[in-house]
Design goal:
By secondary structure, the protein is α/β, with parallel strands linked by helices. The protein has 15 helices and 15 strands. Helix 14 links the parallel strand 14 and strand 15. Helix 7 crosses helix 12, helix 10 crosses helix 11 and helix 11 runs antiparallel to helix 14.
Length: about 525
């Protein structure tokens, strides 16, 4: 909260945009915080009436006075008005999409930031030692806990919590990290590699001998093959053609889809059962790992791709549906699954959720809902009850909870169901049906977070099979879902909309041409 006030004051001081890298806690918490004592800067904002038509000198929004900031209209000044919005604008403050206006604004902002001395408050540096952990935004809490554990083991570690990412000051980072532990440098030529396009982006995570590990990359300097560093992590050697053929014809079981990476969720987390249900569902449908892609965003649930032998893509926060949609329309032959959580999917990813339902692309969206941000230490999420009291939301947020099933139906999802992590076989059956149903399938899985919501252990006594059969009538499904208490398990809606699949055009570039763009 202090960092947010610092950023807002900085934006007011410089009359420049400020982006606060934080999380849902900032949007749902309530707290009274004293104004920070370190927000005073050399150049304070000076307000002045905006010049209006008829003045000798017209008002120019790009004008920078002696204090280094722009004058702005004072509310209540007769004949003056200024509208602030997210669009770029020209010198007169009129919104503009012109490249020249955009560049002029960027130049002005750069000049403002360059002349300001931010002092020691560019980052909070805690502790001392030869190792430094650099963090920012909502990751600071988790990083601080890791640093504290390292110190408890006798390791001297510094925590550098960055407040200001742009403009970056290299000399400040260098000073903060000057005592960093140096590692033995690898030969410089080993980094000059041309990486084949087949090794960039989506790739299978090898495990249990199901798929071959990554290959090798050729050295651009001498053409010498360099072993892929990821193949050194205890994975099996490349399979020959005979063994690969044997693998392709081997019987498919749930184990076929499990990688050698051990899940690292908290003990008792419902996501363990969800992972088991996903692998069982894929085995029920007799799919092959090489024909399945698992896409995720950020959060506890988003670790799913690494724990499977399917092709995987671990994207950025809230953007998994966008990546999965692009993949599916480009490769309609693949079975595409998306793993998300209530924070990743409904908060920062809420917009993508709406439009993914509307587009009705043939993919399956699996959301593990535990009504809390588990990875970032227990903040309220969009599905958290308004009166849930915690250290991070004393007295509760007071905000109405997000109802994802209602939103999905209204936005156009073709399959809507709810499952419970405590019933892995039942969940597997629902997931298999969702994957088999054409169009956008949405499955909400109640997955208890016993670490931050221990009361959710009671969910096993609250869930029950839905008393009604699936319906294809949206109005009937709406009545059922709107009156639902959140614990009816089963398929609630199964529509008949045809999935969206745009026509695929002919590729304009060959794979070798694209690979040239990745040469270093």
């Amino acid at each position: 909260m202090l960092a947010t006030q610092w950023a807002v004051h900085l934006a007011e001081t410089l009359q420049a945009p400020a982006i606060v890298l934080s999380d849902q806690f900032m949007g749902q918490s309530r707290a009274v915080v004293a104004r920070p004592a370190d927000v005073a800067f050399a150049g304070q904002r000076t307000t002045a009436p905006a010049r209006v038509n008829g003045d000798a000198e017209p008002y120019k929004r790009y004008l920078v006075d002696a204090s280094g900031v722009s004058p702005m209209a004072i509310p209540g000044t007769p004949g003056a008005a200024y509208t602030a919005d997210g669009l770029e604008h020209n010198e007169r403050g009129i919104p503009s999409s012109g490249a020249a206006d955009h560049i002029a604004q960027l130049d002005k902002r750069e000049r403002k930031l360059a002349q300001t001395d931010f002092g020691a408050r560019w980052a909070d540096i805690e502790g001392d030692g030869p190792i430094a952990v650099v963090t920012f935004g909502s990751t600071t809490g988790a990083a601080r806990e890791a640093v504290e554990r390292a110190r408890a083991d006798g390791i001297a570690v510094r925590l550098v919590s960055v407040r200001l990412l742009a403009p970056a000051r290299p000399e400040l980072f260098a000073a903060a990290l000057e005592r960093r532990r140096t590692r033995r440098r690898r030969r410089a030529e080993s980094w000059r590699a041309v990486i084949p396009l087949s090794q960039v982006g989506l790739r299978p995570a090898a495990g249990r001998g199901q798929l071959p590990p990554p290959g090798t990359a050729a050295d651009a300097a001498g053409g010498n093959p360099q072993p892929d560093r990821r193949a050194r992590r205890g994975r099996e050697p490349s399979m020959n053609t005979a063994s690969a053929t044997a693998t392709a014809t081997a019987p498919v079981t749930a184990s076929t889809f499990k990688s050698d990476y051990k899940p690292i969720w908290c003990p008792g987390c419902g996501d363990y059962s969800v992972l088991s249900s996903i692998t069982k569902a894929l085995a029920l449908l007799k799919l092959r790992p090489e024909n399945v892609a698992a896409v995720s965003g950020i959060g506890c649930s988003s670790r799913i791709p690494a724990y499977t032998t399917c092709y995987g893509f671990h994207g950025v926060h809230g953007r998994s549906l966008a990546a999965a949609t692009g993949l599916k329309v480009a490769r309609p032959d693949l079975t595409v699954l998306v793993a998300s959580g209530d924070g990743d999917g409904y908060s920062i990813g809420g917009d993508h959720f709406l439009h993914a339902c509307r587009r009705n692309v043939d993919l399956t969206y699996i959301v593990m809902d535990n009504h809390v941000y588990g990875m970032t230490k227990g903040q309220p999420s969009p599905t958290t009850e308004p009166d849930w009291d915690s250290k991070l939301s004393p007295g509760g947020t007071g905000l109405r909870t997000f109802h994802p099933l209602v939103i999905a139906l209204a936005a156009g999802a073709n399959f809507i169901a709810r499952a419970f992590a405590g019933d892995p076989n039942g969940t597997a059956a629902i997931l298999a049906e969702a994957i088999s149903t054409p169009g956008f399938s949405f499955v909400e899985i109640l997955s208890p977070c016993v670490t931050f919501r221990p009361e959710q252990r009671e969910w096993k006594n609250l869930v029950r099979a839905t008393p009604v059969a699936p319906t294809s009538d949206p109005s009937r499904a709406a009545r059922r879902i709107m009156t639902d208490d959140g614990f009816n398990i089963g398929v609630l809606y199964k529509g008949e909309r045809p999935p969206y699949q745009p026509p695929l055009g002919k590729a304009k570039k060959s794979v070798p041409d694209l690979e040239k763009g990745f040469a270093i």
